[in-house]
Amino acid sequence: MIALVALGLSAVAVLADASSLVAAEVIPAGGGVTVANAELRDGDGPELYDLYAGREVRRTVYAGQPITFENTRSARLVTRNQVVMIKFISGPLEISTSGRAMGDAALNETVSVLNLQSRQMVQGVVKADGWVLVQ
Question: Dihedrals φ, ψ of 8, to 5°?
């Protein structure tokens, strides 16, 4: 059983380190990985694009350089100093206000937000449309 788990983890590691996806053009830091700016090498199929869908590069990747999970991250929905909607939801009660994000965050990541009305710092989780759920 442990050998099967180890085998599965090594297969994921091989996919994550796959260097057969390379930049077809310069992708600036924060730029998304797309079919237009990345190309496959070594005969891998288009399913490799699915692994990187919705990810952005951490640092500039130049044409011909490999794109890996180590040099990409989930796309940021909230950026530092962005004004975001803060929502508190409890059953049928929903309270909304605006706030200023104190950092970058992707979907389902925690971010600190300054409530612009009360000037209180709150923490919440980023949701799909870029709003922040506070509990």
Answer: -65, -40
**Residues facing residue 88 across a β-bridge:** 95, 134
Domain boundaries for CATH 3.90.1210.10 within the chain: 2-74
CATH code at 76-134: 2.30.30.760
Q: Does domain 2-74 have CATH number 3.90.1210.10?
A: yes
Q: What is the pLDDT of residues 40-90, one digit of tens each?
A: 887 666 777 788 888 999 999 999 999 998 999 999 999 999 999 999 999
